[in-house]
Specification:
17% helix, alpha+beta, globular, 232 residues, binds manganese (II) ion, five-stranded mixed β-sheet, six-stranded mixed β-sheet
């Protein structure tokens, strides 16, 4: 067998809550504008269908429970936004997965932040250019440990909140998603073959805003506890 010309990058593995095992990440999908009130604050009606974009796997930043994880403030932006999101981790996949069978693909759930260079994203929208510089930059995906569905049960509702420096900025309920979790999995599986190891950031509720170096972000989702980062 041929050798690689240099050492290949390591598989990105996320801790599983209360376990020594790791969840190996394959791809990171994100749902855009999946809460009507967030779509409205971004200048849309809230009735358009959601859509998908991706982050690179190595943009994920594992956030340990009970610690404040440092996340570097990225270059080339003066308007870095937080987007608190529920992340779904797949243990199996397929193509054209029916909505009724989509929950069976879920290995677990995690807290996540879809960090966004809003100034660069807005410029991309205006120019009709792709979103990578706004969404897919290094350290753009802080994510907590994976909580197995075998432990949490299937999540369909519950509060999702984000505090910045102790002040409540985002508060909603998972029932407010335009496409619920099985609908997102089913729709996405019609566009891409999903596989074990795929993550789906399921969209953010209203209340997004900017943070600066030194700001502390505390995210909570019912049933998944909380996680905390500081921008450095
Ligand atoms: Mn998002």
């Amino acid at each position: 067998m041929a050798d690689y010309v240099f050492t290949p990058p390591a598989i990105v593995g996320l801790p599983i809550a209360d376990s020594n095992q790791l969840f190996p990440v394959r791809r990171v999908y994100c749902v855009g504008r999946n809460y009507a009130e967030h779509a409205k604050e971004m200048g849309f009606t809230g009735r358009e269908d959601p859509f998908f974009f991706c982050k690179p796997t190595d943009a994920l930043v594992p956030v340990a429970t009970g610690e404040v994880t440092e996340v570097p403030y990225p270059s080339k932006t003066s308007n870095l936004h937080y987007e608190m999101e529920l992340v779904v981790a797949l243990g199996s996949g397929g193509c054209d997965i029916p909505v009724e069978r989509a929950n069976d693909c879920i290995f677990g759930y995690a807290l996540g932040l879809d960090m966004t260079r809003r100034d660069l994203q807005n410029e991309s929208k205006k120019q009709g250019r792709p979103w990578e510089t706004g969404k897919a930059f290094d350290h753009s995906g802080p994510i907590g440990p994976i909580h197995p569905r075998a432990v949490t049960g299937t999540i369909t509702q519950g509060s999702i909140t984000l505090h910045v420096n102790g002040s409540l900025k985002q508060t909603s309920d998972l029932t407010q998603m335009i496409w619920n979790i099985p609908e997102s999995i089913s729709y996405l599986s019609g566009l891409f073959e999903l596989k074990a190891g795929d993550l789906i950031f399921t969209g953010t509720p209203e209340g997004v805003g900017a943070v600066v170096k030194g700001d502390k972000l505390l995210g909570r989702i019912a049933g998944l506890g909380e996680f905390e980062i500081v921008m450095v």
